[in-house]
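Consider this one:
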Amino acid sequence: MEKNASMQQSKPSTPQLKSDRPFLVGLFGFTLLYVALIALLVVANASYITWDKLVEAITSDAIQQSLTLTFLTCTVTAILSVIFAVPIGYTLSRFNFRGRTLLDTVLDIPIILPHSLLGSAC
């Protein structure tokens, strides 16, 4: 009996893990609030404009040219990303070579620096 009591005392105590539930509830709450604010903006805009004005705005030449340019730019960017970014990402993740860090740094510049900052520098 004494041996069992001494063995129980010698076991190291494991630290209690805290629950992630409060964090997840808070995260869900902030996400729900964010989505609700975006939905509120959409509803506010929808209640402000009439269907006739919306159709008139969408069918105007300026908006049509803007949408065409936007979709063309997105399509070309997606194709170029598949052609160049996938092989470069695969190479950077699988192989070690001289200049790898420099290439990774150069590729990260557009992500780190905002586009407006680069535009104002020119």
In short: The mean pLDDT is 85.
